[in-house]
Design a protein that fits this description.
By secondary structure, this protein is α/β, with parallel strands linked by helices. The chain is built from 10 helices and 8 strands. It has helices at residues 18-31, 49-55, 82-88, 98-102, 107-119, 138-151, 182-199, 202-206, 221-225, 241-250; strands at residues 5-10, 38-43, 62-65, 92-95, 123-128, 163-166, 209-213, 231-234. Strands 1-2-3-4-5-6-7-8 form an 8-stranded parallel barrel, surrounded by 5 helices. Strand 7 (209-213), helix 9 and strand 8 (231-234) form a beta-alpha-beta unit. Helix 5 (107-119) runs parallel beside helix 6 and helix 6 crosses helix 7. Bound molecules: phosphoenolpyruvate. Phosphoenolpyruvate is lined by residues 10, 167, 172-173, 213-216, 233-237.
């Protein structure tokens, strides 16, 4: 696996205002200078993207969005296109986050959003994850359906930059105690990779970074990393500078 590890921060609505967001970005840039073994992505809320992209200009930290419109045409109030995101300075976008799915994004919408992201030249970070663990292993079929709906028959050459984030919904927004445990994660990472291999092919699948998300904090980052993930999608801890830097450091 030649690709560098990746730590992506999903700020959700955590920053109070543009000044707080900018201060954080400047601090992050300073404190991660010289971290060469890991890539860092940051997804602020939409109104802050341009400002944060400017604050991080010519640094290796990439700025992205938490949503992208699934629509191809213009008359959709409140929606933001991939082209607009790119124009604001985004280079990646989170697609299919469970909190968006809970607000009504279906697998079809996620697929269309992925298509729009790729068309716009944005790196998609595709989120999948079961709501609950089922004793009969039903969650494997659930993840397989999410991946298959998003990726089946997708031209492989357009997925070179794809990142997959496995985020079990039940583990999101807790403390590190509520996160998935490394042995369970190891099993899921193998399953996600196997499913990607079936949907694409071995070479294309090996090229995809598989992240874990769900209550990653400095205290569990190293242990979870040992489960075979290529990095993390970090929610609440990405809005705390010390925690985020420590998680990035663990992935160096
Ligand atoms: C997320 O929502 O993508 C996430 C991983 O959140 P948290 O780290 O807060 O669980």
């Amino acid at each position: 696996m030649a690709k560098k590890r990746l730590v992506a921060g999903n700020w959700k609505m955590y920053m109070a205002d543009a000044a707080e967001a900018r201060k954080f970005a400047v601090g992050l840039r300073r404190r991660t200078r010289g971290f060469s073994g890991v890539e860092v992505f940051l997804a602020p809320p939409l109104p802050f993207i341009a400002d944060i992209a400017k604050a991080l200009e010519s640094s290796p930290i990439e700025v992205g969005a938490q949503i992208i419109s699934a629509h191809e045409d213009a008359p959709h109030t409140g929606e933001v296109s991939g082209r607009m995101l790119k124009g604001a300075g985004a280079s990646f976008v989170i697609v299919g986050h469970s909190e968006r799915r809970a607000s009504g994004e279906t697998n079809d919408v996620v697929r269309a959003s992925l298509e729009r992201a790729v068309e716009a030249g944005l790196t998609p970070v595709l989120c999948v994850g079961e709501r609950e663990r089922e004793a009969d292993g039903e969650h494997f079929a659930f993840i397989e359906a999410q991946l298959s709906s998003a990726l089946n028959n997708f031209p492989k050459n357009l997925l070179k930059k794809l990142v997959v984030a496995y985020e079990p919904v039940w583990a999101i927004g807790k403390s590190s105690v509520g996160a998935m445990k490394a042995p369970e994660l190891e099993e899921m990472v193998i399953f996600v990779r196997k499913t990607l291999t079936d949907l694409l092919d071995r070479k294309a699948a090996l090229n995809i970074r598989v992240l874990y998300g769900g209550s990653v904090e400095p205290g569990n980052a190293s242990e979870l990393l040992a489960a075979g993930v290529n990095g993390f999608l970090v929610g609440h801890a990405s809005a705390d500078l010390n925690s985020f830097v420590q998680i990035i450091q663990a992935c160096k």
